[in-house]
Design brief:
Shape: globular
Number of strands: 0
Order of helices and strands: HHHHHHH
Helix content: over 70%
Largest sheet: none
Length: about 180
């Protein structure tokens, strides 16, 4: 499969465990830090800019619009993962995790506050940032591994990217186990 399509499908699929991570960790935050998660905040900030749509959106529609935007952004940024050179994508789990943190930084410290949609991450509680960074590590790692599994092996490679990713995941598991 084309590496850009592989990245897009992987980014879309990786948004599932990312969302589960976000929701699980969000529930553990102190009550005063449990305001809406960034996908909802961002979606509603964009809707508010239209000046008219928000009044027609009940909570169910807001939730669905937020999820649709969240998954679309996961797919779009996953497709960009495919731009990375093959030598970087071979270390799929670690490269993906680093890519996930880079997406978080570029978004929550970059374009989102630059467009005035949300406050920068530096103005949110550290625990909320930790939740979002952890979720992006999960998303990035999953995106990397899934992209490797979906992309066709490159010519001349002794092992497929999926095999490389599985080997890397096993190595990381052994290190984590001590």
């Amino acid at each position: 499969m084309n590496r850009y399509w592989a990245g897009a499908l992987a980014g879309l699929a990786a948004t599932v465990p990312m969302t589960a991570t976000m929701l699980t960790l969000h529930r553990r935050l102190p009550k005063n830090e449990r305001y809406h998660l960034p996908p909802r905040e961002l979606t509603m900030a964009i809707v508010r800019r239209t000046g008219h749509l928000e009044r027609y959106m009940d909570d169910t529609v807001r939730r669905r619009a937020s999820l649709a935007a969240h998954y679309a952004y996961g797919a779009a940024t996953g497709a960009l993962y495919g731009v990375l050179p093959a030598r970087l994508r071979r270390a799929a789990l670690s490269t993906g995790a680093v890519y996930g943190v880079a997406v978080w930084g570029a978004s929550y410290l970059g374009w989102i506050p630059a467009l005035g949609l949300l406050k920068p991450a530096t103005e949110h509680p550290a625990r909320r940032n930790a939740v979002m960074i952890a979720a992006h590590v999960v998303w990035g790692g999953a995106t990397g591994v899934l992209t490797a599994a979906l992309a066709a092996p490159e010519k001349g490679a002794s092992r497929s990217p999926a095999t490389e990713a599985a080997g890397e995941a096993a190595s990381l598991s052994r290190v984590a186990a001590g």
